[in-house]
Amino acid sequence: MWIVKHLVSTVLRNAGHHGLFHRCLGSLPKLEHRYLHCTCCWRSRISIPDFDLLTSTISSEVCEDEGKSLDLNYSPEERTAILERLNTATVNDLAQVKLLRGRKCVNIVEYRTQNGPFKDLESITKVPLFKHKTALVVFHSILHPNEKRESRKPSIQGLMKSLKPAVDRKFLEEARSIVSIVSGMDKIAWAHMDRGLHVLDWKQQKCPNFAKEPFMASAYFDDISSVVSRIPEADIYLMEKSAVTLQNMSMYHVLVHLRTVEAMLFVLLGQRNKPGAAPNVLNMVRLAVGRHFGLMVGDARTSGDHLVRQMMTDSVWQKNPRVSFPPPLVVRYRSTLELQARKNGDELCDALLQAIAFYEKLSELKAE
């Protein structure tokens, strides 16, 4: 108690001076003239020379659009065009609209099936995953569908940005063949493909030491060395860069496993390169491949086994298929890629799709 009394007496003694709880008005620092942007509408700058002005500005002027009905932002003709798209478009058509790919377009179709067509724009906020700001972006994309497409630069947003380490564009264009490699928890798969999208080799190999404790590096090395000895020569070795990060600690052991396999593959395959040449072992971001084939649901990528099975069928029946498979490979993997056995072919499918995405993105790059 005497400590409290001592502090109180000290404060009182220092009244009128620069104490712990008192500061003269003349000593207040000058506030810098700064600006903020409203996080609701991002419409205007907010001057904040002091806290009172900031409070009054936010409460009276900036966020008024947040409470305004969506219908009031558009003319009758625009509202009619938006509602027609929302009420008649299929899931695939809606997926072409900005922010609607994935679960949002499915939610729209499910909502109008259960509740009837949308009668006004404001009713879309009743659909799961839709908020005011999301609806504004979606409506703008419906009214101006070609706006983003005209300004897009494939070379920046496509292939070059999804590859690590960075390589010269000319090196990619001169590559005659690639080997696309995907690692799983107990196997490694690879697809050897040329520039004409002809599948030259397509295999996977079990790695029994991956699942054996105590997970010795030497055991990993034996399995990976065995795989590398079977991988054919190519100009570029393309390895999948998974989306697993340290943010999800429950997946830490998976991350360590994938990074260990990746590092050993980089070293062993890199030995095939000539001294001083450009890197021949590259990472391709897994999510970039998922977006290329429309396999994303939110931030997660779904399986592409149905795409691969369709490509194999087209290779047999179509004159100019998207991808050409040798008949022996079609026969070999027909049962492996059946739906009930999909887990046996996930890495095979991913390796093939990664190779196709690489060449198709390369074609976009050359066409710009």
UniProtKB/TrEMBL annotation:
One of its GO terms (biological process) is transcription elongation by mitochondrial RNA polymerase. GO terms for cellular component: mitochondrial nucleoid. Gene3D superfamilies: Ribonuclease H-like superfamily/Ribonuclease H. The keyword Ribonucleoprotein does not apply. The keyword Transcription regulation applies. It comes from the Eukaryota. It is found in: Mitochondrion matrix, Mitochondrion nucleoid. Its main location: mitochondrion. One of its GO terms (molecular function) is nucleic acid binding. InterPro entries: RNaseH_sf, RuvA_2-like, TEFM. Keywords: Mitochondrion, Mitochondrion nucleoid, Transcription, Transcription regulation, Transit peptide. Belongs to the TEFM family. Transcription elongation factor which increases mitochondrial RNA polymerase processivity. Regulates transcription of the mitochondrial genome, including genes important for the oxidative phosphorylation machinery. This is Transcription elongation factor, mitochondrial. It comes from Conger conger (Conger eel).
